[in-house]
Automatic annotation (TrEMBL):
It holds the Pfam family BAAT_C. InterPro entries: AB_hydrolase_fold, Acyl-CoA_thioEstase_long-chain, BAAT_C, Thio_Ohase/aa_AcTrfase, Thio_Ohase/BAAT_N. It comes from the Eukaryota. Residues 205-412 form the BAAT/Acyl-CoA thioester hydrolase C-terminal domain. The gene is Acot1_1. This is ACOT1 thioesterase. SUPFAM superfamilies: alpha/beta-Hydrolases.
Amino acid sequence: MAPSIRLSPAARSLFDEPLAIAVQGLGPRQQVTLRTSLRDETGELFQASARYQAGDDGELDLARCPALPGGSFAGLEPMGPLWALQPQKPFWRLVKRDVQSPFLLQLEVFEGHGERPGRLLARAQHERAFLRDGVRRVPVRAGRIRATLFLPPGSGPFPGIIDLYGAGGGLPEYRACLLANHGFAVLALAFYNYEDLPKGMKELHLEYFEEAVNYMLQHTQVKGPGIGLLGHSKGGDLCVSMASFLKGITATALINGSVANVGAVLRYKDITLPPLGINPKRIKVGKSGIADIVDALNSPLEGPDQQSFIPLEKAECSFLFIVGQDDHNWKSEFFAVEGSKRLQAHGKEKPEIVCYPGAGHYIEPPFFPMCAASMHLLVGKPVMWGGEPKAHCEAQIDAWQQIQAFFRKHLTGKPSGTSGKL
């Protein structure tokens, strides 16, 4: 019998779902190399390879056979071929631009463990999709709002969430879309550098975000009385500001967010929050030319920078802080702890803080490969994001469950079975 690759699900799976990979028809204890490849929509190639030895029966099941040293990962890692994918172009991050098309994953099995691949023994391809069948993608151009709404299958209403990304701008939809697959109505909201929105991030007005909150609160498919907010990086401090000043927010989850206003002046009615000060002298640039910016921001606890601290004690919602303890973008754990202190000092509910050692800044949905360094639009050079690939991958899987459990609990009133991993 010729060797073949067996996948489950066979042809197509959702990107945040595990994929079972096995090779059958090999010789007893045969040594092979498994290579996975994926191209993003710009054509850039991501690859991972691992060295294996088949069992006595000629079967190689990644759930039972550990990868041997010398490849992109080692040990028992059934999803290693996905999370260990690395860009062939330096400083390139895997993002999904069009959620309506899947990523195509190529799997190849080669003879032996050489530096150069041996004879090709088997090949397969698999679609990693973002939209579950029946999820509706609705472009939103209501008033000033530039967004995309994802609605789960069925009649609804569904618990509603606004999803915000960081300083990269534009309108990333992939996290909102994957979350909608799990039963949430999610609005991916652009706030700059998209269509007719401002090109730069000099000044942001909370009235724009208020329009989006009201849109969700009034939507017939969104279950009230309040909605959730999910933000990563700069999107995190925007969510804290929304929760602090706007009505109708029940639950706010931040992924490596800040509790101080960062990067742009924030205005709302007669209130102005200045951005936290930056000292470029504290940026360290290594031999590789990659900048470490973790110490660049001033502390929001001292001097005039205290004016940047967002008054989150005004919020009438529950908070969840997801923290990568190796975040090199800024001090996410410090921000989470200071936010918690501020809330408790004002008699508010203590937030949930879930910390992940070995996780960097870009905590994405499960199985996105870790991005160690990439271009930072505001810094103008590649910066390090931190993280160790395996620990980061495990953090992404757990954080995804924590976020869903948090929103289910606070937006539907249904408790869920996941336990906090501190």
